[in-house]
Amino acid sequence: MITLTPTALPTSGWMPAARVLSGLLLMVSFSGSRALAQEPTSKASDEPTQPAHLILNQVHLTLAGAEAAVKAGQAKATALNLKVNIAVVDDGGHLLAFARMDGARPASGYTAITKATTAATFRRETGRVDPSGTDPTAAILLNLSLQNAAGASGGKITTLSGGVPIVVDQQVVGAVGVGGGTGEQDAEIARAGILAIRQIPLPETDSKR
Q: Can you tell me the distance from the alpha carbon of 69 to that of 208, in angstroms, rounded to the nearest whole number?
């Protein structure tokens, strides 16, 4: 019969080694947890920035502003001893206000609306285009192209002078079109109407929105 006698394990040799091994395991575990915590951040930074779905702080022309432009335009036309048609549209070329002064040509009413629509949607004054730095032949061809486009539009755009965009805070919010005088006179009346709008201070933005 063989009897096994338990032998006492030495405590002076292996205990320090066990402590060192335990410390290494803790360091590896801590490093791994930090790497896992930082991984989502790196993935999020690699994602492309999504475009904005809305544009805030835009200026819009109101009916009151359009009517003020018509009234100021009528006053300017009276000072010039003219009888004209005045149209005011929003930034998309939709009619907001219109007036035909007593004695003005009815046919010029369509012209005034077309001038206003063209100025608003093209974001520039109507009339002949003379781009700087362009040779005369190219300028003539450009204007002929615009005239052809105006003819093909069914009367929705025009190259006649007298349509002026309304610009507020570098935004085109509408336009004024005038018909009944010369191109220069129509444009002068349109600018008088726009000046009446720009002299009115903009309302303060509601901070709660």
A: 31
